[in-house]
UniProtKB/TrEMBL annotation:
CDD domains to which the protein is assigned, alphabetical: malate_synt_A
Species, as recorded: Carboxydichorda subterranea
DNA-binding is among the record's keywords: no
Reaction(s) catalysed by this chain's protein: glyoxylate + acetyl-CoA + H2O = (S)-malate + CoA + H(+)
UniProt keywords, alphabetically: Acyltransferase, Glyoxylate bypass, Transferase, Tricarboxylic acid cycle
Entry protein name: malate synthase
EC main group: transferase
One GO molecular-function entry: malate synthase activity
Coiled-coil ranges per UniProt: none
Amino acid sequence: MSYQVPDGVELREPPVPGSESVLTPAALAFVAALARTFGQARQELLRRRADRLREVREGKGLDLRAGPAGEWKVASPPSDLVDRRVEITGPTDPKMIINALNSGAQVFMADFEDANAPTWANMVQGQAHLRQAVRRTLSYVAPDGRVYRLGSQPAVLSVRPRGWHLDEPGVWVDGRPVSASLFDFGLFAFHNARELLQRGSGPYFYLPKLEGAAEARLWNEVFEWSEQRLGLPSRSIRATVLIEHVLAALEMEGILYELRDRITGLNLGRWDYIFSFIKTFAHRPDRVLPDRALLTVPSTPFLRTASQLLVHVCHRRGAHAIGGMSAYIPRKDDPDANERALAQVRADKEREAGEGYDGAWVAHPGLVGVVREVFERAFPGPNQLERMSPAPERPEELLAIPDGPVTEAGLAGDIDVALRYLAAWLSGRGAVAIHHLMEDTATAEIARSQLWQWVRHRDFGALYRSARAEQLQRLRAEAGSSPAASGADGGDGGPLRLDEAAQLLDRLVLDPEFVEFLTIPGLAYLRGTHAGIAQERGRG
Ligand SMILES: CC(=O)SCCNC(=O)CCNC(=O)[C@H](O)C(C)(C)COP(=O)(O)OP(=O)(O)OC[C@H]1O[C@@H](n2cnc3c(N)ncnc32)[C@H](O)[C@@H]1OP(=O)(O)O
Ligand SMILES: O=CC(=O)O
Ligand SMILES: [Mg+2]
């Protein structure tokens, strides 16, 4: 198959299965029009992000900013998003999509962000699978012969495009790579928005990694423009925003306001939130966080305060408050350990339901029942939007540094997780179970950014080098004896790329400049050739 592309559009990746249904000339023309209309505004926002970060790192103070005063509320949710007590998330391969849609959760968030390794094949085939899922034609036959089909009462579909920071190096428009957000959103909306509306649902999106209200405004403009261009009813594109950056937390109400005609809720993305906290203050020796395992929501004042503030702001303005992701997943190998994992998830969701959340995410179908039970017990349903939660008593704790040690065991743990995760990611898998915990890009970002900070401010450079070398040896031996034994085999993507993972990790940890997202240099490794490397150069 060869591509037919509109004028000014260049495809820099080869056709893959699914290209024929996804990368049609009309769909590419829509993505190109999005890029031409909003590309510059996005670049401007990214420049503003960089300026703001520089100012904060230089010591500029931060304040909580209220949204516009008055009694405004966000638009009421569509009927199929009124009850969101359990939302499952996961990557876009056919088995995951089918299992998630059949899981009994109210919503399935199909993920092109944290749970996705953005290989070209994953991006295009993921869209092709979602296109089939929307039309209810998706099926899958596993290598062992098991057949997967969609059930009669699937979860409501929502899609998370990649964040504003990333380019999609496979598609260039007028000599520049397109924004990954516009590529993912544009293709999904072009192929599915009308079909979803005809089927009684709608085009619903989860928006990741926003850093403030201006970025929400740009998304709103993209949605408004797309509705007109695609001939959709006005305000039919709906969104939920992840609050997963400390600067976005300061502007939660403004984010709701900018998207008030379309937004249905906020979700506290605790893992990226922790990463953002480390990154924002990375250069400050007085703002070093303790070991990753100690950073739980109840015990960490900045997370606890953000969590309370989110429910307060959401309910005041009529939006759902959706809880985030516990990293514990069920275990088949050990009933006692399984019970302990479920107890961790239950406790986390009981806290959220008690704080006023209307529902929460789960990482695994085996957790749907546990979380549903917690929210059903907490309130009769479908949500607790009417319950007003108080504002946090000590909002200054949004920026407080938690107590706790930085230990050599913490360093070894971060190296282990980062190496295993990066190796799996480079092999095409964006979400993996490592030591029986869910790890994805956001949790790996925490590990590698802590290492950067500890090397700088705790003099852990030599220790990092020796521990990293030892761990690489150990993982090579594990992978040699059994690919699955490393906790993250290469899966469909082929063998684990441990040596490249180590190279990438060294760069992320040892570069004097903090790398803003691991996925930016990571993409050069992931795509292998000119495409990823071009993005890095283009950014320079
Ligand atoms: C920080 C954040 O952004 S959180 C959101 C992003 N992260 C995610 O979405 C993670 C989603 N979770 C996952 O990807 C997976 O649960 C993993 C990788 C952590 C573990 O997956 P596995 O190792 O396959 O788990 P396990 O072997 O227990 O799976 C049992 C079954 O459940 C299925 N399953 C597991 N997780 C999911 C999921 N999230 N959605 C759909 N099906 C799932 C598996 O495919 C498997 O199906 P099968 O029995 O038909 O073969
Ligand atoms: O996207 C969710 C997060 O916790 O990060
Ligand atoms: Mg995230």
